[in-house]
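Support case: user asked for a sample of complex input and structure output to validate their parser. Sending the pair below.
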Amino acid sequence: MKNRTLVKNLAALPDGPVTVSGWVETVRDQKKVQFVILRDESGAVQLVNPATRELDENADAGASARLAMTEAISALTHGSFISVTGDLKHDERVKLGGIEVKIGALEVVAEANPETPIAADSSLDKRMDWRFLDLRHPKQNLIFRIQTTFLHALRTYWVEHDFVEIQTPKLMASASESRAELFEVGYFEGTAYLAQSPQFFKQMAQPAGFGKVFEVGPAFRADPSFTSRHATEFTSIDAEMSWVESHEDVMKMHEELLVAGLTAVKAKHGAEIAELFDIELEVPTLPFPRIPLREAKQIVADRGYVIPRDDADIDPEGERQISAHVREAFGHDFVFLTDWDISLRPFYHMRHPEDATLTNSYDLIYNGVEISTGAQREHRIDVLVAQAREKGLDPEELEFYLDFFRYGVPPHGGFGMGLARVMMLMLNEHSIRETTYLFRGPTRLLP
Amino acid sequence: MKNRTLVKNLAALPDGPVTVSGWVETVRDQKKVQFVILRDESGAVQLVNPATRELDENADAGASARLAMTEAISALTHGSFISVTGDLKHDERVKLGGIEVKIGALEVVAEANPETPIAADSSLDKRMDWRFLDLRHPKQNLIFRIQTTFLHALRTYWVEHDFVEIQTPKLMASASESRAELFEVGYFEGTAYLAQSPQFFKQMAQPAGFGKVFEVGPAFRADPSFTSRHATEFTSIDAEMSWVESHEDVMKMHEELLVAGLTAVKAKHGAEIAELFDIELEVPTLPFPRIPLREAKQIVADRGYVIPRDDADIDPEGERQISAHVREAFGHDFVFLTDWDISLRPFYHMRHPEDATLTNSYDLIYNGVEISTGAQREHRIDVLVAQAREKGLDPEELEFYLDFFRYGVPPHGGFGMGLARVMMLMLNEHSIRETTYLFRGPTRLLP
């Protein structure tokens, strides 16, 4: 590897020779002195060079070299990757971290085109066209370092609790959720479909006797909508557990998992998040509030918001309202809305033992937006088939899935959660486009 | 959650009441006594019940209950999920772990169909039809627990070394590797393609200034072959790093990563692997042997095997031969074959500075089979475009990728590695079908 010092490690070094490598963020080419801000994956540092603008008559080789260096720095284009060896000096007057590096040798490793296609005020869509440049910004970079920490904490929680990681196939012979939002794939002489969720396959781990499983992987929805919360491809965080007694057991694991994730993020990135996002990240208290959906709708109505729907569902503004209520009443960013009407849930959700109009299910709302759906699943094959029929599904098309329940299966439940939504709400961003590495929508397949 | 004790935790408990829950592995229904082997995700335990076969004239309620229990146990079908409360007793004479549970109460949670569709001698293809039953076997279960440990150790290595996790899109506007093995997806009014690897997108993290990245996710190849090593969908383990000086830097990270993974697997599962797979797992020593491909082919030829190819490539038997040589000469299970001929490598591999017929690349062979390809990438846009043309590619079709190199990019390199192959070779299995949760091939999309 290139022998270099990461910018974040410079401050701890004594004055002396160092090599730093990264890209040119800005050049301030003043008459007597030149400043370059060099950024790498860990931070930014000021490089400095006393300018030599012309040679006098008796100029020696050293002066020629100094002129050449000055001209090389003047010619640096924004974004070029360079490697610089020079003298590190601690100097409290330097605003950027109290250090600077006096340039000794400069190597331009890859010169950038002089015209940068995006600027600070570019539209989100334009920034997405040039996502690899957009991601150079410290905020964008931090989002994905936070995501790394968050996911690792989730997986560590699962591994410590004896969950098994599975990789379920994304190519399927039939729909996993709804025929309406299904991508078709030409598959040799036939057709395959892209998995809309790992639902059926994570449930398969239950009759397989895996006990508890998790997966973090892509899911696909041929959803033509253009909201800030929808994508045609997204990263789904999924878990499923045997021997749950109701959706309460799923919620308990779910909230512990999120606390583990947010605790790790706050510990590692809390200061950076405060600096770049102006957010004091809170680790939520346990347990998260739980409100039955019908009760939540009453609370929203009492706040004066009339949900413009004829069915039992809530809408995005209703979710914001109930979140605001929970923040006021409990000081909490999360709320489980529980016990959804059967009309709003898929056939495989288990129904209440005492009220067959309700399911053992929940949605999790985080800062006003739904991030997850969880439920206990129906594991009794006769009930499952009846519920499928009731939803207008043909059990024959679901044969491979229904077979999972015919040879013994434990009671089970789990959830699916959208990673980009969690990140968006954690960092108060306004769209999952900001928290997705490369967003995919109905009109976006590039880069 | 169901209040139960995992089977693996029974041995440490004193004699007394316990509840165990799992599936019926076998019933031995003897005249005087009934034995049930119950298995859960952690192990198997013997349940015992003294049989009551008939009632005499003055039978009391207790006797009736005992008869009912005996009949319930006789009726148990293989695979049914049950929950049993009873008395744990340590007894050295019991072969299965020196413990048994005398059945007090038995609940059949989900009854299995009496005919089990697969048996111990079923073909691999038949077992795959009923994968959820096949996975109940202790060996299959262990494979995925090992995989969980392995992946977590890899990710922990990366996180500790400041890699950023990325989730790259699987829907693309063009091919990522070769037009030949591409799946087409109907995408609203147009067409998308499934990513054959995250190659272009993990490289994109380099001009984005992420430094070091990793991803574990699905990749898709419309490959019509039916070998033991190929699938149409597989889990790819990928990493990419900035500022490498050659493929040597990539190999160094790669071998450290594998040592971290195998160390964790041996520590957690070494004894089970010895018991179920009859393998004493070895943690390989560092560094792994490195042999230039041309030299490797000479070694294979000297061993008397003539590779039946006219080009510079090696073949599967050649890989087995060079592995055998490395095992004999260095006592090592791994070997890097380095410096592949440009004709065998994609356009984006960097070429040797001193020999333009060779690339800065490698394949990693594990116990005779290729598991990974790695390389330094060409980051100089003019050279990259020339190499693409040389391979007969149209740079216009690659515009979005080539743009990554036009606005500054550091030198970089990385590798892609097939998870199922690593698991297959670690456990001496004969096909990736055994080490894939749900295999996908040209004629297999179910379950």
